Amino acid sequence: MKILTRCDSRVAKIINKKRLEEGAKYRASQFLYTYNEGGRYLLRNTLTKETVELTQNEWEAFSQLIENGSDCGFIESNGLTQLALSRFIVESKCDDIQQYQTVIFLLKTMAREKKGLKSYTIFPTTGCNARCVYCYEEGYAVRNMTPEIADRLIDFICETRHDDTVSLRWFGGEPLVGANIIRRICNGLQERGVPYKSSMVTNASLITKELAHEAKELWNLESVQVSLDGAREDYTPRKNFYIPEKHNYDVVMQAIHYLADEGIKVKLRVNFDWENLDRLSSFFREIKAEFGDMENISLYIAPLYQVQHTDSITDLYRRMFELEDEMKSLGLSKSSRDHETVRIRVNYCMADSIDKCIVITPDGIFNNCEHLPETHTWGNIFEGVTDQKKLDELKKPMPVDAKCARCPFLPQCTPFYKNGCPGWFEKCYEYNCMKTEHALHNFLKGENSETDYDDEEV
């Protein structure tokens, strides 16, 4: 047996065994994915994050165990003992879901997070200078944060933050429509001696050289996600700017240079569907020519939210993985997992991190998800918590849905199946199968294709 990616040592300390249990019956863990290609056999444990390669004999014995179960004698005589100790094989009586929930609970407890909020996602405005044809915020009322609300927000951050550097995440609308508010908040925090860093999701059309410099020096802007839609012919009609003479493709390309020149990390998110898919290859080459080998610019692709709920999404994802390999060959997709160990996500997203993350709308209202700013509110920066029952409901761990409970990818996905999560889609199992097989295929080629773009810790 050869280890390709080592297990998360935190999880191993909780669930791994030191010896087999005499007299116990054994079976394969629910959190197991098997893959074979060209006479090579891989197992991935989605709970511990360990990936191993088996010999032919080990694979045949393990396949028999999957089919019929086994006992200690069979495991030991066929060289599978380490698989049982590292929980690829578990006791038949083992409750996999309970084990998963225990791991998450203990990891959160062991983290011993400092009291106070760590991350503030702030909407300076819900207004935008574009009218993207796919915008999920269409129909939201346009609201702008006032100087008075910004001043109260500064007080709120000072009152509720933990005692280390806090993270500010600027979101919208287009957050740069509210650049004056961002400036006011950062100046206020600086005057109070509050250490902070920030990130932003933007279309970048309002970035100037001077603003990029200010963002680096005053806003402590470390990373920016810039939303693109492919080459000019796709970008222009999809982005649909109000004033295309001032805000357009060329302006955005220049803005990306301004940001990168300041040392700010720029992630280019390319939204795609069937309409622009065939032109992405040439667009990748255009991006390569435009930005060369700049280390702080990377690119990733993501399907539009709307197409994730169509019958053709699995075919679209299949093409996506092919394009990701092409991006990697051009040096546009940079993996941050070049090491051998991958860690389990303790928190799926900000909605699952409500004790340390908060979303604040232009009106100063609290929320638990940047994609649902009109719902799930429980208070505001003026009165604090106004609906304790709602807050307690949002804090309470959600029970694992019956459908998710049967899925081997539960530890790397979301259990919010019936809780209105905007990230959930019907074909998530098929997607995770393709994603895993794509990664394991590349492992066998000696490459690590797993990126952190869709797996960032909150």
A few lines on this structure:
The protein contains 14 helices and 17 strands. The protein starts with a strand and ends in a 14-residue tail after the last helix.
Low-confidence regions: 336-340, 451-458
Q: How many helical elements?
A: 14
Give the CATH level 1 class of the largest domain.
Answer: Alpha Beta
What CATH calls the topology of the largest domain is TIM Barrel
Percent helix, as a range, is: 25-40%
**Strand residues, percent:** 15-25%
Count of domains? 2
The CATH homologous superfamily of the largest domain: Aldolase class I
| Gap between N and C termini | 35 Å
Q: Which structural class do you get from the secondary structure elements?
A: alpha/beta
User: Order of strands side by side in the largest beta sheet?
Assistant: 13-12-11-10-9-8-14-15
Structure, explained:
The protein is an alpha/beta fold and 458 residues long. The protein has two domains: 2-110, Outer Surface Protein A, domain 3 (Alpha-Beta Complex); 116-329, TIM Barrel. Helix content is 34%, strand content 17%. It contains 14 helices and 17 strands. The chain has helices at 9-15, 56-68, 72-77, 81-85, 96-111, 147-160, 179-191, 209-217, 232-239, 249-261, 280-291, 313-329, 388-395, 428-444, and strands spanning 2-5, 25-28, 32-37, 40-45, 51-54, 70-71, 89-91, 119-122, 166-170, 196-202, 221-228, 265-272, 297-303, 357-360, 366-367, 379-380, 384-385. Helix 1 crosses helix 5 (96-111), helix 6 (147-160) crosses helix 7 and helix 12 (313-329) packs parallel to helix 14 (428-444). The radius of gyration is 24 Å and the shape is globular.
